[in-house]
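Notes from the 1:1 (GR / supervisor)

We went over the backlog. Supervisor wanted to see one worked example end to end before approving the batch request, so GR pasted a single chain during the call. The sequence is below; no edits were made to it. Supervisor asked that the structure be written out right there so they could see what the output format looks like.
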Amino acid sequence: MPKGSPELTEARKEEIVGACEKLYQTMSFKEITMKEIGNATSFTRTSIYNYFQTKEEIFLALLKREYELWSASLKRTMEQADTMTKDEFASMLAHSLEERAQLLKIMSMNHYDMETGSRPEHLKEFKTAYGESIRTVQACLRQYFPDMPAEQEQNFIYTFFPFMFGIYPYTFVTEKQRTAMEEAGVNYVFMSIYEITYNCARKLLGDGTR
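Structure output shown during the call:
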């Protein structure tokens, strides 16, 4: 790591991550290279290696940021709303992920590559953010459903978080994929991020309105 203030180091890391994020809006994970990311920053391409050694580390940092933003959004909701019905909670959770399509896209397409291609210290930083998102959802459940049995809470967490990996590929289908499914006679029901997330969360919460 180069010498410099922590503020400069953080600012440069954020610029690198931001450049990667911008490229990812029009390019695929495979198309994006360290050279492409370097060309999109204000400093030399070789300087990137002072902060990230692989593009997987950069994507992992982007995914970390997405989890942090999602957790922050849920925490703001908890501060603003003391109580919720099951329908309201499922809707809130669905909207929170609807606003974080990039989180769902990265985690579903490139998650394994990012983790295996990153150094332990970067992986630890990511896992810290990921763990905080789990704790935040748990805190939501405990605030809005204080009578929920521990077993049901655990079932919600360990079903919902793995479920998140499949949201993006299920809800964002290319025309080529759509045509192939139609020609194959696959009875595919197209759903939005909100619809599929709401339905899952509502089912995990069980019957009733409270």
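Supervisor's comment: The two ends are 52 Å apart (CA to CA).
Batch request approved.
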